[in-house]
Amino acid sequence: MAQKINEAHEHLAKAEKYLKTSFMKWKPDYDSAASEYAKAAVAFKNARQLEQARDAYLQEAEAHTSYRSYPPAALTEAFEQAGMMLKDMQRLPEAVQYIEKASVMYVENGTPDTAAMALDRAGKLIEPLDLAKAAHLYQQAAGVFENEERLRQAVELIGKASRLLVRQQKFDEAAESLQKEKNMYKEIENYPTCFKKTIAQVLVHLHRGDYVAAEKCVRESYSIPGFSGSEDCVAMEQLLQGYDDQDEELVSRVCTSPLLRYMDNDVSLPACICLLVLKGCCAHASIRGQSVNDLL
């Protein structure tokens, strides 16, 4: 470890030497300095001196920026590597800032796929700490893929954002996100998943107390091939009927059916329970052996 640290400091000294000017050397050699800073960063990283590695990566980035003909890919990678050092130091909000900065540069440099993947990684990093920030990062990544007409990758990330919006009880935003998901799945002709997104939409709208919007979702889904008469369609028609009639037994039967119980819990189970509580239909119901209050 001591050898690596000494090696890193040697590279830093060389970098500083390249940046010095003299009577015979009027301009700093930013390109060579950046190369030495990069080598120093790797040596510090291998010695587990993460903060010093981060500083060296940022010095590399600064040298690249000062160099008129700097290589964009090298600058971008330097910022992302600085973010990775902060990640390893468990300074996640700071790490995400650098990864976001790198992602913008990836787009500007013509590598949008790399940008989207970086944003996805940043979302995963920050999700345990900040659901709102993670949802925003997933939406950004989805937008990059969507601009590249890569809808399969985009819709997966929109789905991540939808689930986090539900977990935050941002149901208005969740409803919009789910609609966007469904439109994308319809465009790529993944109709069975469209059915599931319709169920999620209905549950979210009913949780919001918007019966009209929930009914509209089902009605519009009749145009999706295979939806009309499907198990999903029948269940939603029954749920809407039970909700409108305040039929506790019917609503409870639909909400506790395998079709809904084994969906993504972020969308189905909490929304169903809240629906039942709000309607006063099932204040003491038990789902999966737990009381409603326990699950809430």
UniProtKB/TrEMBL annotation:
- Keywords of this protein's UniProt record, alphabetized? ER-Golgi transport, Golgi apparatus, Membrane, Protein transport, Transport
Give the chief site where it resides. Answer: Golgi
* Gene Ontology biological process: intracellular protein transport; vesicle-mediated transport
- Similarity remark: Belongs to the SNAP family.
Q: Which GO terms describe its cellular component?
A: Golgi apparatus; SNARE complex; vacuolar membrane
Give the protein's biological function. Required for vesicular transport between the endoplasmic reticulum and the Golgi apparatus.
Is-annotated flag, keyword Transport? yes
Name of the protein this chain belongs to: Gamma-soluble NSF attachment protein
Q: Which species is this UniProt entry from?
A: Sinocyclocheilus grahami (Dianchi golden-line fish)
Return one GO MF term.
soluble NSF attachment protein activity
**Quaternary structure?**
Interacts with RAB11FIP5. Interacts with VTI1A.
Alphabetical list of Pfam families matching this protein = SNAP (PF14938)
Subcellular location per UniProt equals:
Golgi apparatus; Membrane
Taxonomically, the superkingdom here is: Eukaryota
Q: Which PANTHER family match?
A: GAMMA-SOLUBLE NSF ATTACHMENT PROTEIN (PTHR13768:SF2), SOLUBLE NSF ATTACHMENT PROTEIN SNAP (PTHR13768)
Which topology term describes how it sits in the membrane?
Answer: Peripheral membrane protein
**Membrane spanning stretches:** none
